[in-house]
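Comment thread on ticket #2218

A.B. wrote:
> Attaching the input chain for the structure job we discussed in standup.
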Amino acid sequence: MAGMVFVAAIDQGTTSSRCMVFDEGGRVVAEARREHRQIYPRPGWVEHDAAEIWANVRACVDEATAGRDVAALGITNQRETTVVWDRVTGEPVHHAIVWQDTRTDAILRELAPREAGIRRITGLPLATYFAGPKLRWLLDNGLRGRAERGELLAGTIDSWLIWKLTGRHVTDVTNASRTLLMDLRTLDWSPELLDLLAVPRAILPEIRPSSEVYGTAGGVPVASALGDQQAALFGQTCFTPGEGKCTYGTGSFLLVNTGATPVVSRHGLLTTVGYQVGSAAPAYALEGAIAVTGALVQWLRDNLGIIESADQIEALAASVEDNGGCYIVPAFAGLFAPHWRSDARGVIAGLTGYVTRAHLARAALEAAAWQTRDVVDAMNADTDVALRRLRVDGGMTANGLLMQFLADVLDVPVVRPAVAETTCLGAAYAAGLAVGFWPDLDTLRTQWTADAEWKPGMDAARRDRELARWRKAVDRTLDWV
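C.D. wrote:
> Ran it. Output below, let me know if you need it in another format.
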């Protein structure tokens, strides 16, 4: 290993933080991970301790990079999760409000008459998901005075980590595009929306490209930041318009590169910034966000005790031929794309005395695929470029039963890359580009290799029949709250 140089990436996720180290070929050479607490003060509220996250990130970076020559450090992060901290002490002044949190409902109702204008500026619908209303809530609940006196700084997790690492208060275009505060076309904070949400500009970070040197930490350039899903798009080398990927983690996120122009969705998708490399023009993307996929497996494990560990679900689901007529729609905190219904709550439909825990396990896996199908249908309608194959990544892609069912319900091949953890890889690629570790996007594209592929095998009549039942189950979730 003497003389070898590496690139490291921090992946600050919803349930854990980790650091991965990559060699010049984009292969993983080291990894360290720490979980952090999930804090639930009330139903629908989800918080994290940003100080705990920072301590975990430091420990992971120290462990994974020990004894290695690191050319650059990149960051990818859970998006929309919002932190406010003291400008002098660097201590958080409130728990971070997590992307899944729904406490901003009342603020969104107040904004509803302005939704069309907000969507035109930001590319986003009004949803509890986004960071700007979370920041407004924090300001309205005890922090406004200190913010207006200039004592506080705010941002998403990427900007919190960059500030702790380098002392600079910056964010990147991908994270800023998830706040409901950034103008998609100028790539700057919208004065109109700052005014509308009553957010003082002085507490917000400067918006920078996704791939550039922001500062140094212990002599190592901190050289990229991308929201986790955009990082996966980058790691999957989806650099050409029409190329797309879906990441399967706590939730699932399908992104398709739409090129240099933002495409306004007519079918419930988000318009977002895909990435920006240095001074080059940004690449935009359409995104379909599914709130609950892997989290449904965790729920079966932790709340119902149907399995003891998440990796047991495949064998249990495979022990039955089908779902026994049972469908689970996991609208735990409403439905995300393409429905955007915060009034929805989860249902298990089609229950009979015949259904066993194995059928429930299978229905839970199938829910991930059916939710993807809903998003792909919307994507195809918006882009007029039918999806030819789907690149997939994330923890759930180890589940062969799910991947085959996904190919069956989408009726396209599903391809998993050799490096399944493309979120970290994308952040590493962007950081490496910024310091010249890799010369250009074409070099990165040649490194992408497939590990496995699943081809569709379900007959069309069965697919249509099951899709109709799935959509009936989705209808049952609506108007609950």
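A.B. wrote:
> Thanks. Noting for the ticket: Residues 357-383 form the longest helix (27 residues).
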